[in-house]
Fold these 2 entries.
Entry 1:
Amino acid sequence: MKTALCELLGIEYPIVAAPMGPDLTGPDLVAAVSNAGGLGILQAQLAPSPLFREEIRRVRELTDKPFGVNLILHFPVDEQVAICIDERVPIVSFFWGDPTPYVEHVRSGGAKVFHQIGSVADAQRAAKANVDVIIAQGVEAGGHVAGEVSTLALVPRVIDAVAPLPVAAAGGIADGRGVAAALALGAQAAIIGTRFLASTEARPHPEYKKKLLSANEDDTIRTTLFGFGWPNASHRTLRTRFVEDWLETKHAAKNRARTNRSSAIPLSPAKKCRFSASWGSRQTSIQPVTSDRWICWRAKASVSSARSSLRQKLFVR
Ligand SMILES: Cc1cc2nc3c(=O)[nH]c(=O)nc-3n(C[C@H](O)[C@H](O)[C@H](O)COP(=O)(O)O)c2cc1C
């Protein structure tokens, strides 16, 4: 089934593989989705610039179909925007922040601009900035979550607010029924993240994919745990053992801070596991961590920055 957005983008199906950072939607997944008639969107923003460019070129080697490149506006993007224009990337997708300073520059370079939002107000700002497509992201979405409203409620509200601009729906869509529901709401495409994360071409560790596939609707939580370099930005993640431990540690820290401001937070061996996604490894994995110091640092990062006296004690172990 084709929508007007399919015609605009030159794709067969109204299905988009969401960009998933830092490098989970690499060229293989992007090209596989684009080759199958959907639209793949690369996320490689935290790579050094030469590698960022290389990833874009790799997509081009794997497909001659349209694809996108995603940039999160919390981080500096000037260099990456210039590379996208230079590499004639057909679609640049933004998230988290105000796209206004970049929209005309990107469009005049020949690319179309997507912007993902989580509220009607942000959709209106993006429309005013002249983006080509708005992605309405419901609170069900995996990864970083911009708003508080469910996909079912947000999508029609955004469509009405920015008409006639095309709107795509993101958040909690994992199969054909979800795609049909998104189209029934008036969306012109479904943006699918988590489901594609579990696919062969995506880069997460196989164990993480297994966990995704065996998870149910109760098994995610919205938290700020994986906020390194991007603090206080809430994201939905699987409730792994590490996440459960972090939640316990956080609550224990809160209680201890209340009752005994001089105690350090105890850290069990179970904490010696972390979710890591780093350039170079090419894999996201659950890895053992050998340094207690790192654990303490992570725990430190997760406890409110207001508790500086407590934080200093976290290093004493
Ligand atoms: C692991 C993960 C990482 C994500 N990283 C990004 C990102 O770097 N940039 C972005 O615009 N969206 C990112 N998202 C959000 C997606 O764009 C999209 O809104 C979401 O995946 C849709 O919900 P779903 O996961 O239920 O399909 C990420 C999502 C996941 C699951």
Entry 2:
Amino acid sequence: MKFSSPFGDARCLLPTRRVAVGASQLRQFAIEPRIHDPLSNPHEAQQEYGINLVQWQGLSSLDALILAVPLRSGYSTFKLNLLEFIVKVLVTGAAGFIGFHLCQRLLTRGDEVVGLDNLNDYYDVSLKKDRLAQLKQKSSFSFHKLDLANQPGIAQLFAQNCFDVVVNLAAQAGVRYSLKNPHAYVDSNLVGFTNILEGCRYGKVKHLVFASSSSLYGANTKIPFSVHHNVDYPVSLYAATKKANELMAHTYSHLYGLPTTGLRFFTVYGPWGRPDMALFLFTKAILARQAIEVFNYGKMQRDFTYIDDIVEGVVRVIDKVPQSNPQWSGNAPDPGTSNAPYKIYNIGNNNPVELMDFIEAIEDCLGIKAEKKMLSIQPGDVPVTYADVEDLVRDVGFKPKTTIQVGIERFVKWYRDYYFI
Ligand SMILES: NC(=O)c1ccc[n+]([C@@H]2O[C@H](COP(=O)([O-])OP(=O)(O)OC[C@H]3O[C@@H](n4cnc5c(N)ncnc54)[C@H](O)[C@@H]3O)[C@@H](O)[C@H]2O)c1
């Protein structure tokens, strides 16, 4: 009987941490896996399974195992997919909102996660420390307090570790703050990102995934915002630095064959969220019976995206290493892809919500009516965000789905528990 697997017809090499996961996946197909230690007796493995010794030379860890289905049982051996080789993921911004949730998810699926963060005081540092304290409970998590802009420090981190994947989330975030403190954006988002690119280049990282932003669509008015539209008109320095990150990553993909994927996140919210963002600010003010500031007199739409949906998207993208697109043409360049191993995705809810409806959902959840201070639009802000997620759905089979009612309820529950309110 020929076994046909959805993962391809090949051999399966798994680092130890992944063996349990791989074994359970094999068992779903009624295949009893055999575990073989190639380093103790590679010749036996070669004879029994026809495995090419070259296949495990890339494995850094001495405890690497081969999990293979014996050919003689009538099944072909197979691998689960290339990314099953991943043992080590560097997540920068690990103490941040998205980084914390992503680390939790990666640890749950069995990855070894190295977190990096400078724990800056852009917002309440104790919130960052509390997130970190949860991650530190897992033995496969380690943490480095380090600034991205510290060139020797980052170079040393890459020299001492062999990262398979890097997810760069550390950045100076926030549109409004970029008018106040532009240098913070240059230091973290430009200088820091260069250090990450150099680390990935010399560290031979297999995939760099990095946070971009919906704010890149800036002055664009064609909605939904698509990764295939040009985004050459940012309206804040924050957006300009994120655009620069995409250009810099493309250059490294082109010059050094470094596979890079940029993710444009759309207004992320959820438990452990950022204190400078609308949901947090509104909840805090409403509970304290203080007025909330409603910009552009409430005439705003946001494609609010729940944190679990963002994390699901990121994890799936991590496993989808971009390839060069043979159809890409310099005569009519498509900004979302390239002839280099480079790809851009939107991760947004694909369902923009009126700001006033968002506020009403918070009021309903809290059971308190908000006092509203109606104000004009803030410089650097855009009135509407709306993500086209066609590429994400096509390539990784996922579309964010959490409604604001569900997401806000979960946030409010967390907020009340965390702050004892
Ligand atoms: N939350 C959103 O709605 C949203 C939307 C679009 C894009 N993004 C991007 O996603 C990423 C994560 O955002 P978040 O909401 O989790 O923000 P966050 O501020 O909670 O997390 C960023 C983390 O990076 C750390 N950091 C900042 N500069 C650093 C530096 N120079 N060196 C080391 N660490 C540094 C901070 O201490 C923080 O813990 C950011 O790149 C952000 O620009 C977020």
